[in-house]
Design brief:
It contains three helices and 50 strands. The protein has 812 residues and is mainly β. A hairpin with a 2-residue loop joins β35 (582-588) and β36 (591-595). It is elongated, with a radius of gyration of 33 Å.
Length: 812
């Protein structure tokens, strides 16, 4: 048979295995040539029979080694995985790094291709008996063959692809004939046409032949004798790769000693010696353990038997669109569908890690041909790793809006996840796909000004010592496509809501003892209650427990609001929750806004700004949001603070701050909601002013101790931010005192010397609830009193700060 463009093919029809120069076999038993089953022709190669009455774990490897002159491309193979946990499994490695697995595949299928970089690589198929090292087995499965068969291995250089051929076993040519040396037309393929259209982890393709790689682009042939491939269990073969591996010189083929430290499984199965379906040949395993290796054993915090997931029948591969969108989305001020294939080097808005960075890909695209994907970080040692990609939108005049992008999150906790950040602040985590193998739309609100949005893919995010066998549908990668930004005037910003009819401020401390005082409702499972278990103030609070929710489900408390103008939803919460057991978060209009958690017994205040209009504010408790197996969760160590409960109290709406001017003309601090706090008290004076009759002032003498601070603060709530200007006259000098202007308790301006003139300043107020503080700090360095009293005061220093003419202008 032949495949156009293939530079290597081996269908084992020459019957020279294991003496082929590219192939080696090793371990507790040798792979052998067999006539039992073949994808095409007469022969395939087969794993040995490693079953034994003692249940001793054994491993056998077969390895294809590429040469130094091989170009970049993909390696394809047809495989029949007659294995089933907990008896046996098959893992696939490239240069010692796991790239996939095969199990419960009763008929031959063809993989979707493993990407290889140029040069030498070891592609190893590792068959293991009793990989979890059970002391006793469950009753045997009737459909377990207890062996793996491999056939039609071929290599296509980069840029060469294959169209679908005919249905297996059908001698009628439908496309791309594959000719045998006898002149007859044969069309071998991985699966039926129906199967290939419903699989995301396999492709229907022809096989090709050659005995060694060649720079010639011609067709190589080998004479098959027939075809036996039929349909398969969808997604039983998983290949979690696509970053071309670069071979490490010291890497060896995986052995049964490459796993985590041993932990014997409990004997919770009745003693039973497994049996297999009869086979006509196979080597018996050696009785001695291999030299310099130890069996891979199940980690102690996982059950020793992790059942493999039932094949998914509904997973449909995403067909690639052949053309890119003809125009950017309506109203978008930025768009990248990656169709120029310039990522990352010539794509100025995007950047990624220099080592193990994201890459351009043609594997999965939402539209067009290209998307970007996370790298393969999987290792046999389960080493935790991360890789980030960042979109930098640097327009200083950007007035806020929404980043919209298509994401295919092929992740599954505890194996991996995707967390995304805006300007360094976490905005959400994707734990698993909403629908297997399908792109979903992610909308991320953006504030005015330059933006940096980072997507961080993490492998083994909880730093577990070992991981269970992955589910068949796990991809181990994230794909991003069609990223665009809608400005706020054309975007549906997932604002943050408030109650009814614009009637102003709202408050519910649940002191009615139920949810009747306000317009509360529920989504998901009804687990929320009002009780007196842990109130923040008063007698009652709203309370939810993850143990009252079904695994994989959620319970949500909703508040419907209708605002005539922007407002701020504020609440106090206590959430002693921990991933992956449960999560607690705030949502607005169905969009994730922020996670909520506390790791001690204290309460925390949180909130969000809301635009005008109708909204639904939601507090959601999710149990096992990552969909991990319940028996796995039951064995994981739980943080000492975790109770799996969440409480909210004092839910209130606070009106947005209008533009104002403060010149203290009332002679006090009542014109605006000022807050006086600290170790000294601000006052009003008419002795030194910039505008009007008065100013606010504070002196170090007003702070009685040797060190301390006096604060004058105001909360500013806006939907779109604004500008705050002020004038100060500092008569201060370090180390005696300094003056600070703080934004959300972070100093943005500091004055440490005396000025003869008023100083005009302006700071930017970002959307949301922001606290602006004017502060005099006495003895900021904590100099001992007997020392600081001996330091001479500089001329002109009075140790006083004056403040006047504060003007806030909210952005429209």
């Amino acid at each position: 048979m032949s495949v156009p463009g293939a530079e290597y093919y081996n269908g084992f029809e020459r019957a020279t295995f294991p003496n082929d120069s590219e192939w080696t076999t090793s371990g507790d038993g040798m792979w052998t040539l067999t006539e039992e089953r073949a994808n095409t022709g007469k022969y395939s190669i087969k794993s040995p029979n490693l079953d034994n009455e003692d249940g001793t774990p054994f491993t056998s490897n077969v390895t294809l080694s590429t040469g130094p002159d091989w170009p970049a491309g993909r390696i394809y193979f047809s495989i029949l995985g007659g294995v089933k946990m907990p008896f046996d499994d098959l893992n696939i490695y490239v240069d010692g790094t796991q790239q996939g697995r095969a199990s419960e595949i009763p008929e031959f299928i063809t993989n979707q291709g493993i990407l290889l970089s140029p040069g030498e690589h070891d592609v190893t198929f590792s068959y293991r008996f009793n990989p979890a090292e059970l002391e006793n087995f469950p009753p045997p499965y009737d459909d377990r063959i207890g062996a793996v068969f491999l056939d039609d291995v071929y290599f296509l250089p980069a840029g060469v692809t294959l169209p679908p051929t005919s249905t297996p076993g059908d001698d009628t040519q439908t496309s791309s004939p594959v000719s045998s040396s006898s002149g007859s037309s044969v069309s071998p393929t991985a699966a039926t046409t129906e199967s290939s259209s419903s699989l995301s982890s396999t492709t229907s393709s022809t096989s090709s032949t050659t005995s060694s790689p060649s720079s010639t682009s011609g067709t190589v042939t080998e004479s098959p004798k027939g075809s036996t491939s039929t349909t398969m269990a969808p997604n039983a073969l998983t290949i979690g790769i696509e970053t071309p591996p670069t071979k490490a010189p010291t890497t060896t083929a995986p052995t049964i000693g490459s796993g985590p430290p041993p932990t014997r499984a409990p004997s919770y199965y009745p003693s039973y010696v497994p049996s297999k379906s009869p086979v006509s040949e196979g080597n018996s395993p050696t009785t001695a353990s291999p030299a310099a290796t130890e069996p891979t054993r199940a980690p102690s915090y996982y059950p020793s038997y992790v059942p493999s997931r039932a094949p998914v029948s509904g997973g449909v591969a995403i067909p690639l669109v052949t053309t890119a969108p003809t125009s950017i989305p309506a109203g978008a001020i930025y768009y990248d569908g990656f169709e120029k294939a310039t990522f990352p080097d010539e794509d100025p808005e995007w950047s990624t890690d220099e080592s193990s960075g994201w890459e351009i890909s043609t594997e999965q695209a939402n539209s067009g041909v290209y998307s970007i994907r996370s790298p393969n970080l999987m290792t046999t040692e389960y080493t935790p790793a991360q890789s980030s990609v960042t979109l930098s939108y640097s327009d200083p005049a950007f007035g806020g809006g929404t980043l919209v992008l298509s994401v295919l999150p092929g992740v599954q906790e505890p194996f991996d996840n995707l967390e995304y950040f805006v300007n360094g602040e976490s905005r959400g985590v994707l734990l698993k796909p909403t629908e297997e193998g399908q792109y979903e739309t992610l909308e991320i609100p953006l504030t005015p000004g330059p933006q940096e949005v980072t997507f961080q893919y993490s492998y083994n995010p909880y730093e577990l010592d070992a991981l269970p066998p992955p589910p068949p549908t796990w991809m181990g990668a994230v794909y991003i496509d069609d990223a665009y930004i809608l400005p706020s005037d054309s975007a549906n910003l997932p604002a943050t809501p408030a109650p009814e009819s614009g009637e102003g401020d709202f408050f519910d401390g649940f002191e009615s003892g139920d949810f009747e005082a306000s317009d509360w409702s529920f989504s998901g499972e009804e687990a929320w209650v009002v009780d007196d278990v842990k109130p923040y103030e008063g007698t009652y609070s709203a309370h939810v427990r993850s143990e009252d929710i079904s695994s994989g489900e959620y319970s949500q408390l909703d508040l419907d609001v209708d605002l005539e103008s922007a407002a701020f939803i504020q609440f106090d919460f206590h959430a002693a929750t921990a991933m992956p057991f449960e999560s607690f978060d705030l949502r607005v209009d169905g969009q994730f806004l922020t996670g909520l958690s506390t790791d001690d017994d204290t309460w925390t205040q949180a909130g969000a700004v809301l635009s005008s209009g109708e909204h639904v504010i939601s507090w959601r408790m999710s149990r096992n949001p990552g969909g991990a197996p319940d028996d796995v969760l039951a064995t994981l160590e739980k943080p000492p603070y975790r109770t799996g409960e969440a409480f909210i109290d004092n839910v209130q709406l606070i009106s947005a701050t209008p533009s104002f001017t403060e010149i203290f003309d009332l002679g006090d601090f009542t014109a605006n909601p000022w807050i006086l706090s600290g170790d000294g008290e601000w006052s009003i004076t008419d002795a030194v002013v910039s505008e009007g009759a008065n100013s606010a002032t504070i002196s170090s003498i007003d702070i009685p101790e040797n060190e301390g601070a006096a604060d004058l603060s105001i909360d500013i709530i806006t939907e779109r931010g604004g500008k705050l200007s002020y004038e100060v006259l500092p008569s201060v000098s370090s180390p005696f005192e300094i003056a600070n202007v703080l934004l959300d308790d972070i100093a943005v301006m500091t004055y440490s010397s005396t000025s003869e003139d008023w100083i005009e300043e302006e700071i930017t107020i970002q959307p949301g609830k922001r606290k602006v503080t004017f502060q005099l700090q006495k003895n900021p360095g904590g100099v001992p009193e007997d020392v600081i009293s001996g330091i001479p005061s500089p001329p002109g220093r009075d140790g006083v700060l004056w403040l006047d003419n504060i003007v806030f202008v909210a952005n429209e």
